Amino acid sequence: MLRWSIATVCMGGTLEVKLAAAARAGFRTIEIFENDLTFFSGKPREIRSMAQDLGIEIVALQPMRDFEGMPEPMRARNFDRAKRKFDLMEELGTKLLCICSNVSEDALGDPERSAADLAELADLAALRGFRIGFEALAWGRHVHDWMQAWDLVRRADRPNLGVVLDSFHAFARKNPIAPMAEIPGDKIALVQVADAPGILMDHMSLSRHHRCFPGQGDWPIADFLETAIGTGYNGAISLEIFNDQFRGAPPPAIARDGMRALEVCGETLNLRRAAAGAAPLAISRPLPAAAKVTGVEFIEFVTSAAHSPRLVTELEGLGFRRVARHRSKDVDLFRQNDVNIVVNREQDGFAHSFYLVHGTSVCALALRLDDPARAIERANALGAPTYFGRIGPGEASIPAVAGVENSLLYFMKDSAVSSWEQDFLFIDSPAHAGPLNRVDHLNNMVRRSELLSWVTFYKAVLGFTEEPQVELADPYGAFFSRVVRASDGSVRIPLNIADGGSTSVSRFLENFGGGGVQQIALSTDDLFAFVEQARARGVQFLDIPDNYYEDLSARYDLEPALIEKMRELDILYDRHKGGEFFHIYTRMFDQRFFFEILQRRNYDLFGAANTPVRLAAQAAEDDEARRERAMLD
Ligand code: MG
């Protein structure tokens, strides 16, 4: 039977924790990586009963290394080693031993001899009712492509010997996938899946540190699975990810992400099958289709009575007006055209807890969707449970799921104008015009170990797509940004990470106490007019050094008067394929968040060329704030 599986090597922690995490995520099959047994204090048969109690089958023990094609006396020693592995398999109650291709310098390159070794091993295994799987490692000494592994399996010709197909090695070596269709399904011992970023690196380093779940990298994993399953293969499809970040993350989160990634693969395969008139694969549960995300309905800030006036001054400076008050809570609605900002000063409940941990910050985001109920069903099916908040009598219940750092992500019907009236009492005209039109994008700072998890969340749960990763210079290191976006581009979320140090991301994680929204980008049709009005209302913008404008005049044929105006107002500029981009940043609020106001003219990027300038200016501002704090202390 086709079934999803996960190798214990994907997760950190002890074997007991890994088994429990896999079971909780819905896996009923696992592969045991032998190193995990080495660190296990109990007997292997205890693992067997633990797995049985959790309803988990141990599909394979792996790996046995450097086996085929060895000269004597190493060859004889290998057969002794294999017998000990068989004893271990007996105790674990597993039937399949996976051998990966020999990397030893002593290995002989004779295919006949290697095939004969595999045949002899398979015969020994058969006496005990076991099977052998043979896998090509991309860095194998003589066997490094799946076609070579399959060739040895075919030469050995034993009924209990099959090839292990691992997407990582196949894609790393740029092996063709289509010819896999010619392998009889019963000659495939195991199918392993791993994705990876499309970066140039030696195969072993890429494998050991950058493997990731399907959909987190750049390889066509669904094509690989479609071909493997097309052979009639009917066994486990197992995630095998070596990744330091995964091992550093909580095992339940990793197992959940793995299942999410596999279920979405299964959904893709079943959509293709439906289009071709084929029956769906039973391996995947039918998922409600992702709802269409059409925008940001509101951004919710939490603050306290003491800090609220500063936040309100900032919002009013940007042209927002308080238009409504919540009927039962200390919550106000600020509005400007299509941008709704909710300010929550409640003294208990979710938002207040968030405030106690993170201070004045964005605690929730509401997305507009065509079908929120279906979105919640899909989220639940993919392991994101519904959050139920406290509501007053007669108030709208808005479904939500947990977002970054346990902020909330609300799902709202995209035409639900009336739900505001249900919960809010309007004190001003509901429509308030102003220079800012809509939410352009929101940056999420995330811990490095959580980046891929959020990529999978947005893609799998919300049907977002992804733009290629961008690497940017920070005055204190480097940071990396991956943008996830709604299919129509109405919501765009750059996910930013850094490698420790004093980078902007690191300082944010430290100041904020975890990941969260750092940047709220709002669009306008006339940035210059907006900045002049906002300055007059007292809004302070980030100081941009004069050198930036010298550089700008050298790079672009801009009117000197325009550059002068930008210098005066601290406006930044970028250009791409004939499109133009003007933007400006407010000063950081409590070292946590800031607004970017931008004007796009046929420009679809994020002004990444200016990010180092912003980061340097913010670092200078941050240093100043720290000095001031130190003086006060
Ligand atoms: Mg493998």
Contiguous low-pLDDT stretches (5 residues minimum) are none
In the CATH scheme, what's the topology name of the largest domain? TIM Barrel
Tell me, what's the shape? elongated
Q: Helical percent range?
A: 25-40%
Give the number of helices: 21
- Portion of residues in beta strands equals 15-25%
Helix-strand category: alpha/beta
Q: Give a quick account of the main beta sheet: strands, pairing sense, barrel closure.
A: 9 strands, mixed
What is the correct CATH architecture of the largest domain? Alpha-Beta Barrel
CATH class of the largest domain: Alpha Beta
Oligomerization state: single chain
Q: Could you tell me how far the N terminus lies from the C terminus, measured between alpha carbons in angstroms?
A: 66 Å
Bound molecules: magnesium ion
Number of domains: 3
What name goes with the CATH superfamily of the largest domain? Divalent-metal-dependent TIM barrel enzymes
